[in-house]
Structures are given as C-alpha cells and as structure tokens.
UniProtKB/TrEMBL annotation:
Swiss-Prot/TrEMBL keywords: Aromatic hydrocarbons catabolism, Isomerase
Name of the top EC class for this enzyme: isomerase
Subunit structure: Homodecamer.
InterPro entries the record matches: Dimeric_a/b-barrel, MLI_dom, Muconolactone_d_Isoase
EC id: 5.3.3.4
A Pfam family assignment: MIase
Stretches assigned to the Muconolactone isomerase domain: 4-92
Protein name: muconolactone Delta-isomerase
Substrates-to-products reaction catalysed: (S)-muconolactone = (4,5-dihydro-5-oxofuran-2-yl)-acetate
Organism, scientific name: Trujillonella endophytica
MF terms (GO), sorted A to Z: muconolactone delta-isomerase activity
UniProt record, GO biological process: beta-ketoadipate pathway
Stated family: Belongs to the muconolactone Delta-isomerase family.
Pathway(s) served: Aromatic compound metabolism; beta-ketoadipate pathway; 5-oxo-4,5-dihydro-2-furylacetate from catechol: step 3/3
C-alpha cells in the first residue's frame, strides 16, 4: 500500500565550497530528484520562498523506501529534514467521491 509523506528539506552548503564542486553536486542532485519524480515516487516539490529549502510529497511503499531515496540524495549531507506521514482527511472532497 502506498504511503504519503511530506518532507521539508533545508539545505546549508558550506559558504567556502569550491564552485566547481558545488556545480557538480547541484547537477547530480537535480538528475537524481528528477529520476524519482519521473518514477512517481516524488509526487510534488515546492520551493519555500526566500529560503534554500523545499517541501516535497513522496509516495512510497514503506518507511525503508523513503529512507533509501532520501539517503541517496547527493545533497543529503548538507540537509536537515522534517518528515511528516500523511493520511487522508475525512473532509477532503477528492477522497469522498462525486456528490460529497
């Protein structure tokens, strides 16, 4: 059964990071995240305005699968994350169906 998670990712790259290493790291991060987006596991990604952070929604089969995806992020060593499991809300008309 698919489980949904909201994941806030805050990034803090070292200010003295070599520009070439930074560019390579960001390119690898983009490719990795887009691969998971195409697979359907990384359903949404939004920028947090004014911050080097995003809020994402993942659809995975288990805690272990989410853990594996997140640990694989090239930026992972430079991130702080907050992970929130999600459940359907009884007032959500999309879940209730037609005529709700």
């Amino acid at each position: 059964m698919t489980q949904l998670y909201a994941v806030r990712m805050d990034v803090a790259l070292p200010p003295d990071m070599d520009p070439a290493a930074r560019g390579d790291l960001l390119a690898r991060e983009k490719a990795y995240s887009q691969e998971w987006q195409r697979s359907g596991h990384w359903r949404h990604i939004w920028r947090c305005v004014g911050e080097y952070a995003n809020l994402s929604v993942f659809a995975v089969e288990s805690n272990e699968e989410l853990h594996s995806i997140l640990w694989g992020l090239p930026l992972f060593p430079h991130m702080t994350m907050t992970i929130t499991p999600l459940a359907g809300h009884p007032s959500d008309i999309a879940l209730a169906g037609p005529g709700a």
